[in-house]
Each structure stands twice: as C-alpha cells, then as structure tokens.
Amino acid sequence: MSPTTSHSQKPLLAPPPEQYWAEHKNDPAHAHHAAAAGSMGEDDPWWNKAVVALMPLVPPVMVWPLAKRYVAGASLADMDAAVARLNAAGCRCMVNILGEYATTQAEARATAEAYKATMAHLAQADHHANITVKLTSLGLLVDQALCRQLATELVEAAATHKRFVRFEMEDSSLTSDIIDLYLAVRASRPADCQQVGIVIQAYLRRSLDDVRRICQAGAGHFRLCKGIYREPRWLAYHQPELVNKNYVRLLEEMLQAGAYVGIATHDEQLVWEAVNLIDRLGLTTEHYEFQMLMGVDEPLRQMLVAAHHPVRVYVPYGQQWHAYSLRRFKENPKIARYVLNNLLGGH
To answer: For the whole model, what pTM was predicted?
Structure first.
C-alpha cells in the first residue's frame, strides 16, 4: 500500500495477527483489557490506590522488568534498540528525553544539546523517528528569549537531519506562551517551518479558537490529545463525553482546514470516530497518523497497523525512567501488583 493511499473501501480496523495473541496471552500488560470482559473482583479501588502508593518504595531493579514496556531505558543505545524494534513492527516513533523543568540556563542548554545529539543519532541510524520536547525543559520558565533561541536551534537541527520537532503542550498557564513561541519560531524560519508542530488538548475550552488561529497562520501541524493536567472547570471540560465530543469537533476542524494531525489517543471510541471521519472525508495518509504511548494498548496499535493506518509510538528514554514508569503504573495498577507479587515472592 502506498503512503498516500485513501482508506476508502479498506477495513477501518483489522484484528491483530493470531500470532500476536499467541505470544502475549499471558502478558500482564493486557490484564486491564481482560478484566473488562471478565470478573472485576480484583479491581478494588482501595487496593489499587494502596498498590500505587507502595510503588515508590520498590527498588528500581524490581520495577524495571515491567517498566521496560513503557520506557526504552536510560541510554541512547536503549532508545536506539526500542526505535529499531518498533520500526520493524511497522510503526514510526517520536522520541522524548525524560526530565523535569529546566531551572537554570545551563540545564536548558544541556537539554537542547541532548536533543540535537538524539536527532543526529536517529538520522545516522536511518530510523523513522522524530523528537517531541517540552519547552519548559528548554527554559520557558527561566528565560523565554533563551527558550525561543534553543527551540529555533532544534528546528534548524531537524532540517539538517531531515527530522521533525513537536513542541508539547503543558498546563493551561503556559498555553498562550507555547503557542506564541511556536508561531514565532515558524515565522522566523520559513524555510524550515514544516519541521515543527504543536500539541492541542481537547479538554481545554479555548482549543477551538487556538486551532483556528494556528490554521489561519498556516501553521497547522498538530498532535491532538485529550489533556492530562488538572485544570479548573472554567478552563476545561470535566465530563468525559464532552471531552470526546470536543476532540472529534477539533479533529474535523483541523482536517477540513488541510492540517496534518497526529491523532493521539488510546480511546477506541475516538479511534472509531477518527477512522470514520478520515474515510468520510476521503483523506490519504499524507494528512494524518495515529499516535500512541509505548506499551499502552498494543492490540489496538496492532489493529491500526494491520489496517494500514500510519502509527507513531512515543518512545521515552533517559535517567528519569523510574518516575515516568510510576506514572504509567498509576494508570494500570494491575501491572504494579505484578511487581509487588514478584518482590514478595508471589506468583
């Protein structure tokens, strides 16, 4: 299938190969899917909270065997191996260096250099992978002028190495600053403007206006996600059904404006809405891709790949892998229980 094929007359979703289920039938990462169809007796909210609360006390060496599903590892070599595996499985990748907000100019500069080295490595290895970066790691809260300089340098490096940079969205106090910086960087580098994109969060009430503003500026290259930060009701929708409705509304607005969209979700209802919209609009794979977290709902990822939809997987790596893994376990406490059972000698 060519990279620009329309999905008209194609299956919207295809089942994963039988070999996948044969290889993963006992995989603890799929426990939450099995529970949805069977007994829910183990899904006690109090026990789940207790397990998650205990996880920071578990030695990292005990956490790693299951954490490696969600994170590539600590080193560039670990990232390289994970990206190679995913590329071989038919997935594109987006690489992120795990870390916290930069609190000094030196930290921001060091992070920028690390991303440049990562892009150079991806290019040398000829991996199908780009990078995704939080602007706070480039000093957005320290020195906005420096942050813009470093962000521009990353876009220049992306052009040199034939890569792409995604500026991530953060909490609502930074939304305007991130959009302003994104538009400024694109305007300052017109020759490289196709090397950079931005993220929109569907749960924010302002997002439709933001999408229209960005599209009117000719800067429509989006990742669309639901949003994960705790925000007050006057800024964000709190009802899941409203978040989903706004997600679909924003996706249609983006696609009809001719923007490229990374459809970032593990919600199969939204995947269905997206593939239905893509089919109805007669779009080709030049206009979109699905984006998913490493290790999360791999069966759905397999179905999308089998149906010839482009899929890009988020591949985090770095010294902060442990903290990131704990956040993933919080989303799926059943996996955390496997870690505790192993620690306590259970089976």
So the answer is: 0.84
